[in-house]
């Protein structure tokens, strides 16, 4: 897909995000906006999936696991915009009886979601299980994940990292949203991750890096990651992003990690984001 | 004279091991994961025969549960194996989010449950696990009584679609369930029929309850003994039919008072037909090191405790 088209979609996705969280005065816009370009590229170009034929087992399809479930708005928007469920359903986000729970869950049968996430640190393990079963099923499709960088403070991530290398889970591409921010502040001030690249390397992973707002760089890096599958090692991509990307007052701070804009702030945000595909 | 046919003595965990092996031979979708306790869980035969379907996770139980949940995507039926303590309390959040809430077809096989784990002491003797697991929506909770029943329950778990907690133990106990008795999840077994008191038990306390019924018979008391191997979903009909006759109930389990089988029965009776009930269970205390027999005596979950509870509850009618 042309970068210009991806940009148009991402702009609409960002509008969806801020409108969804503003409508219920809750949710996590910062990380959602920061990952909008990544999700757009994944769902409109990279993932081998058929939105119209979603089923839980996903045989012969690429699988995607969102481990940092609080950025559900970006996932819901991209799932709807790519055809998994009606775009109009985005208006139900976080409301009573909605399939679009605050944190993603398959409990209400929302197409595109295979595992609940929200309690952090668990998605890498989930993805490893799915990836190992793909091998057993002689299924060559891949398994992708996304994690927050703050999420890497959870010990289970490192249990999973150790396991994936030991078991040579090489059909798995994990991505870290490396925005350096978490709810309480900068990751370095909360609990620094140290040298993240060397940590993953020491755990036996291939480590790649990319700019999460540069479609060419992401396309190239994801292709390189794909080329590294099947070589006996799991792959992780450290993706640099800006929390709040696309809305000026949400950038450069952790403050919009988990708070929603008010009516005036929403208007300001929408003025910065072109409506390209039509609001829901 | 109450006579119960006994087919020797064995540990219930070995019943799990045999059931898992049989499943491995009959169902190519069955997988097994273990967190460095393969021998203790009796999973080694499966590991040896099906190495490609066995996953050694190491000492990382949280990772094991979440991996198992992921393995259901693609149609597999994973069984996780570790001690009951590390199968539940240690990984409650992982079970809650990715097994129960996500409603995945994971079978949590938990050995060394309760006091009868013995000498390792209270760090390993979980007495809260039935409560934790039965509180989770979508979760089925099974506590089989002997070797044969554990084997059949293991096989039944695989045929059941959805999360299951299967709890068994370490010590060698009498085998009284027939080897070919089909295990039906949620269908209680009435082992002894009686008219004066209903004794409802699970796990190792079923045999103790049989012994208690034999003792009560000598005192001229007719006890009905029900093996409530499935705590959830509870066979309410079996309970209500029995208490309609006996008008009182004793519950017996290797678990805390709080949250166990006894509470499930009390809740049912409170809603439908309030009747006197006595608990044989551990009363809000941790265990300690000791032999299984000494522990059951000291913590009052032994045969004489069931007898005493029966006499007491009859007096309350």
TrEMBL record, chain A:
<dbReference type="InterPro" id="IPR029061">
    <property type="entry name" value="THDP-binding"/>
</dbReference>
<protein>
    <submittedName>
        <fullName>Transketolase</fullName>
    </submittedName>
</protein>
<comment type="similarity">
    <text>Belongs to the transketolase family.</text>
</comment>
<dbReference type="InterPro" id="IPR005474">
    <property type="entry name" value="Transketolase_N"/>
</dbReference>
<feature type="domain" description="Transketolase N-terminal">
    <location>
        <begin position="7"/>
        <end position="269"/>
    </location>
</feature>
<keyword id="KW-0786">Thiamine pyrophosphate</keyword>
<dbReference type="Pfam" id="PF00456">
    <property type="entry name" value="Transketolase_N"/>
</dbReference>
UniProtKB/TrEMBL annotation, chain B:
<dbReference type="InterPro" id="IPR033248">
    <property type="entry name" value="Transketolase_C"/>
</dbReference>
<dbReference type="InterPro" id="IPR009014">
    <property type="entry name" value="Transketo_C/PFOR_II"/>
</dbReference>
<dbReference type="Pfam" id="PF02779">
    <property type="entry name" value="Transket_pyr"/>
</dbReference>
<feature type="domain" description="Transketolase-like pyrimidine-binding">
    <location>
        <begin position="10"/>
        <end position="175"/>
    </location>
</feature>
<dbReference type="Pfam" id="PF02780">
    <property type="entry name" value="Transketolase_C"/>
</dbReference>
<protein>
    <submittedName>
        <fullName>Transketolase family protein</fullName>
    </submittedName>
</protein>
<keyword id="KW-0786">Thiamine pyrophosphate</keyword>
<comment type="similarity">
    <text>Belongs to the transketolase family.</text>
</comment>
<dbReference type="InterPro" id="IPR051157">
    <property type="entry name" value="PDH/Transketolase"/>
</dbReference>
<dbReference type="InterPro" id="IPR005475">
    <property type="entry name" value="Transketolase-like_Pyr-bd"/>
</dbReference>
<dbReference type="InterPro" id="IPR029061">
    <property type="entry name" value="THDP-binding"/>
</dbReference>
């Amino acid at each position: 897909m042309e970068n210009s088209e991806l940009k148009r979609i991402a702009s609409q996705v960002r509008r969806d995000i801020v409108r969804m969280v503003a409508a219920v005065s809750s949710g996590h816009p910062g990380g959602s906006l920061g990952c909008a370009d990544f999700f757009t590229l994944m769902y409109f170009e990279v993932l081998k999936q058929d939105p119209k034929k979603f089923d839980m087992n996903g045989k012969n399809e690429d699988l995607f696991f969102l481990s940092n479930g609080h950025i559900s708005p970006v996932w819901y928007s991209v799932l709807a915009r790519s055809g998994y469920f009606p775009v109009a359903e985005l208006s139900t986000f976080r409301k009573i009886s909605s399939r679009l729970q605050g944190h993603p869950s398959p409990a209400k049968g929302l197409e595109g979601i295979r595992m609940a996430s929200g309690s952090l640190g668990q998605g890498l393990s989930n993805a490893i299980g799915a990836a190992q079963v793909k091998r057993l099923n002689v299924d060559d499709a891949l398994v992708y994940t996304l994690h927050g960088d703050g999420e890497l403070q959870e010990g289970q991530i490192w249990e999973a990292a150790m396991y994936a290398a030991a078991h040579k889970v090489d059909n798995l591409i994990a991505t870290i949203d490396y925005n350096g921010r978490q709810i309480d502040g900068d990751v370095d001030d909360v609990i620094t991750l140290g040298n993240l690249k060397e940590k993953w390397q020491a755990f036996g992973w291939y480590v790649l890096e990319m700019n999460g707002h540069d479609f060419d760089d992401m396309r190239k890096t994801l292709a390189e990651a794909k080329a590294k599958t099947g070589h006996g090692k799991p792959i992780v991509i450290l993706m640099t992003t800006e929390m709040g990307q696309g809305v000026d007052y949400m950038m450069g701070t952790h403050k919009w990690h988990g708070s929603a804009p008010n009516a005036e702030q929403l208007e300001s945000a929408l003025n910065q984001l072109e409506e390209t595909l039509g609001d829901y | 004279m109450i006579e119960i046919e006994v087919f020797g003595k064995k540990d219930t965990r070995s019943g799990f091991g045999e059931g898992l092996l049989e499943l491995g031979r009959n169902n190519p979708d069955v997988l097994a994961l273990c967190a460095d306790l393969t021998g203790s869980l009796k999973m080694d035969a499966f590991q040896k025969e099906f190495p490609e379907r066995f996953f050694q996770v190491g000492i990382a139980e949280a990772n094991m549960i979440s991996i198992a949940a992921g393995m259901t995507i693609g149609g597999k039926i994973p069984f996780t194996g570790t001690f009951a303590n590390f199968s539940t309390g240690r990984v409650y959040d992982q079970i809650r989010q990715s097994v129960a809430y996500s409603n995945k077809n994971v079978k949590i096989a938990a050995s060394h449950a309760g006091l009868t784990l013995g000498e390792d002491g209270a760090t390993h003797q979980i007495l809260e696990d039935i409560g934790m697991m039965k509180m989770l929506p979508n979760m089925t909770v099974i506590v089989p009584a002997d070797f044969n029943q554990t084997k059949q329950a293991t096989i039944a778990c695989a045929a059941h679609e959805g999360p299951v907690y299967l709890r068994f133990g370490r010590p060698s106990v009498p085998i009284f369930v027939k080897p070919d008795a089909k295990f039906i999840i949620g269908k209680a077994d009435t082992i002894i029929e009686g008219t004066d008191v209903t004794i409802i038990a699970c796990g190792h306390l079923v045999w103790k309850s049989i012994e208690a019924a034999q003792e009560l018979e000598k005192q001229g008391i007719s006890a009905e003994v029900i093996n409530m191997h499935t705590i959830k979903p509870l066979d309410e009909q079996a309970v209500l039919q029995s208490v309609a006759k006996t008008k009182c109930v004793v519950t017996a389990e290797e678990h805390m008072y709080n949250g166990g089988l006894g509470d499930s029965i009390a809740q049912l009776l409170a809603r439908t037909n309030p009747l006197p009930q006595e608990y044989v269970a551990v009363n809000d205390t941790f265990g300690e090191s000791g032999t299984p027999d000494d522990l059951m005596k000291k913590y009052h979950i032994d045969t004489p405790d069931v007898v005493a509870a029966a006499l007491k509850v009859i007096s309350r009618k």
